[in-house]
Design goal:
Blueprint lengths: L9 H21 L5 H21 L1 H15 L6 H20 L1 H23 L8 H24 L8 H24 L5 H27 L2
Helix pairs in contact: 1-2, 1-4, 1-5, 2-3, 3-4, 4-5, 5-6, 5-8, 6-7, 6-8, 7-8
Length: 220
């Protein structure tokens, strides 16, 4: 839950997103599906998201530096450790502002769906990648979305009591869940068209889930 007097402002929002995305990269390395190019793409995207939080928090600034070092070592020994620690530091900057539950939920939802989209794109470079890796990231995003909605309810973001914003939140949550489910089932289709469909759905999922996270905290 969000601590008393704390807010989930733009810096905390972007820190949770960046930290969640960065934490998926060591997973991809462990699964042996992350080639150097993908590692640089994912870490580079996380770094861009970290810039604003780094201007607002020393924790996020330290996380940015560590992930930047990780980008330089992508594909080599020590990469995963640097990125993982940098991701944790960045998430801490969000936790201090918004609380651990909101941060974990937002990081899993936004980081998971963004990683799903990025790894789906990487199939254009390496069509031999296993689809189960993309499915795991998609599942992470779905779990984060559910947890984000629950965290919002615990903090008072109840759809039927929030007027138009509340019903917009409910609608976005349902659309986001449908997009995550659609990506999951699309990956079960044979041929590269299934991966293309899942990647396209995850594009829309990034926007929709970001809206869910934003409205959850706007209504608190």
């Amino acid at each position: 839950m969000i601590p008393t007097g704390a807010t989930f402002g733009p810096a905390a929002f972007m820190a949770a997103w960046a930290g969640g995305l960065a934490l998926t990269l060591p997973l991809a390395v462990r699964w042996q599906v992350a080639k150097r190019g993908y590692q640089m793409l994912g870490a580079g995207t996380a770094v861009l998201l970290m810039i604003y939080p780094a201007l607002r928090s020393w924790w996020a600034a330290a996380g940015l530096v560590l992930v930047l070092f990780g980008v330089g070592r992508s594909g080599r020994r020590g990469y995963s450790g640097l990125v993982a620690v940098g991701a944790v530091f960045t998430l801490v900057s969000s936790v201090l502002s918004a609380g651990w539950l909101s941060t974990i939920a937002s990081g899993a939802a936004l980081g998971g769906i963004t990683a799903t989209m990025l790894l789906g794109h990487w199939f254009l470079v390496d069509p031999t990648l296993p689809r189960w890796a993309v499915r795991r990231l998609d599942l992470l995003s779905g779990a984060g979305l559910v947890l984000s909605v629950v965290a919002g309810w615990l903090n008072g973001a109840v759809p039927y009591e929030g007027g138009a914003l509340g019903w917009t939140l409910a609608g976005l949550a349902m659309v986001g869940a449908a997009l995550v489910a659609g990506a999951w089932f699309a990956l079960g289709e044979t041929g590269y068209s299934g991966v293309m469909a899942a990647t396209g759905l995850s594009y829309l999922g990034v926007v929709t889930i970001a809206g869910v996270v934003f409205l959850n905290h706007l209504m608190v």
